[in-house]
Write a structure and sequence with these properties.
Elements: H1 15-21, H2 24-39, H3 47-71, H4 73-76, H5 94-115, H6 118-139, H7 146-155, H8 157-166, H9 171-194, H10 196-202, H11 207-210, H12 212-233, H13 242-263, H14 267-272, H15 276-301
EC number: 2.5.1.141
Subunit structure: Interacts with CtaA.
Keywords: Cell membrane, Heme biosynthesis, Membrane, Plasmid, Transferase, Transmembrane, Transmembrane helix
Length: 305
C-alpha cells in the first residue's frame, strides 16, 4: 500500500525572529555610542528627548541590520556563523525582512527629525543608506576594502547623538567617528584570520581571501598604529580628561602590542595553536570601543575633572 508523504508546514516566524533581524548585539554598540555622543555634548538635552533620540537611532540601526540580512541571505546560508539567522534558517521570508527594514528606516528618520533635529535625521538616513546600499549591496562583494570603507556606517552613531544635542558636527564628534572607523578593520580582519574558509566559501573578497593572511597581519598592525593617535587625541578635547586619557593609553598600548604579536606570526605557527593569539586579539577588540566610550561617559560624569 502506497503511503503519501505530507510535507511539514514551514515554521511561522515569531517575534524573536524579527528582533534577530535587527542584529541586537550590533545595535547595542550603536545605542551605547550614540548615547555617549549625545550625553557628553556641551548642550544639555531634556531626558525625554534624549530617550526618544536614542530609541530612533536604535531603530535606524535595526533597519540597517534587517536590510543587510535581506540582501545577504545567500551568503549567510553558506557561512557557519550566520547560517542560523532568521532568513537562511527559513524562519522569516526575505520579503518580510525587506518590508521591515524599509518601514523602520522611514519611521526612524522621520521621528528623529521631529524629536531632535533634521541634521541628526539626515545623518541617520545617510547611515542607513551607506550600510544597506554602499556597503552591503556594492562594496561587500566587490572589493577587499569592503570593511574599511563600509566601516563608516558603524562609526556614525556617536556623530548622530552629538548632532541630536548640538544640531551640528564638531572635532569631538569627528574624533569619536575616527575612533570607531579605524578600529573596525582590525576588528573584522582578526576575525577573518581564523574564519577565512567561511568568507572564501561565501565568495566574499575579504582581505584574507584576496591577499592572504600575511598581508592581513600587516594591515592589522598598521591600523592599530593609525588608530591610537585619534583615540588619544580625543582625550585632549572638551569631552576628554585624565581618566579617559589613562584608559586610552592602556587600551591602545594593549591593542598595538596585540597587533605586533599578530604581525610576527606565520601561518604555520598560528594554525598550530588554533589561532590563539588572533582570537585573544579579537576578544580584546570587542572591549576596546566599549571601554573608550565608557571612559568618556564617566569622565563627563566627573565634570571633566
Amino acid at each position: 500500500m502506497a503511503t503519501t508523504q505530507i510535507d511539514a508546514p514551514a515554521p511561522e516566524a515569531e517575534f524573536g525572529d524579527f528582533v534577530a533581524l535587527l542584529k541586537p548585539r550590533v545595535m547595542s554598540l550603536v545605542v551605547f555610542t550614540a548615547f555617549v555622543g549625545l550625553w557628553v555634548a556641551p548642550v544639555p538635552v531634556h531626558p525625554v528627548i534624549a530617550f526618544c533620540s536614542v530609541l530612533f537611532i536604535a531603530l535606524g540601526g535595526g533597519a540597517s541590520g534587517a536590510l543587510n540580512m535581506w540582501y545577504d541571505a545567500d551568503i549567510d546560508s553558506v557561512m557557519r556563523r550566520t547560517a542560523s539567522r532568521p532568513i537562511p534558517a527559513g524562519l522569516v521570508k526575505p520579503g518580510d525582512a525587506l518590508g521591515l527594514g524599509l518601514a523602520l528606516s522611514g519611521v526612524s528618520v522621520m521621528m528623529l527629525g521631529l524629536a531632535a533635529n533634521w541634521v541628526a535625521a539626515g545623518l541617520l538616513a545617510f547611515t542607513i543608506f551607506f550600510y544597506a546600499v554602499v556597503y552591503t549591496i556594492w562594496l561587500k562583494r566587490s572589493t577587499p576594502q569592503n570593511i574599511v570603507i563600509g566601516g563608516a556606517a558603524g562609526a556614525l552613531p556617536p556623530m548622530i547623538g552629538w548632532a541630536c544635542a548640538t544640531g551640528g558636527i564638531s572635532i569631538e564628534s569627528l574624533l569619536m567617528f575616527a575612533l570607531i572607523f579605524f578600529w573596525t578593520p582590525p576588528h573584522f580582519w582578526a576575525l577573518a584570520l581564523f574564519m577565512k574558509d567561511d568568507y572564501r566559501d561565501a565568495g566574499v573578497p575579504m582581505l584574507t581571501v584576496t591577499h592572504g593572511r600575511t598581508s592581513t597581519r600587516r594591515h592589522i598592525f598598521a591600523y592599530t598604529l593609525v588608530l591610537a593617535p585619534f583615540a588619544i587625541w580625543l582625550g585632549f578635547t572638551s569631552v576628554g580628561g585624565p581618566l579617559y586619557l589613562a584608559v586610552a593609553l592602556v587600551l591602545n598600548a594593549l591593542f598595538i602590542h596585540g597587533g605586533w604579536r599578530i604581525l610576527r606570526r606565520s601561518d604555520t605557527t598560528a594554525a598550530a595553536d588554533g589561532y590563539a593569539v588572533e582570537k585573544r586579539y579579537f576578544r580584546l577588540s570587542l572591549y576596546y570601543t566599549f571601554l573608550h566610550f565608557l571612559a568618556l561617559l564617566i569622565q563627563h560624569g566627573l565634570g571633566g575633572w
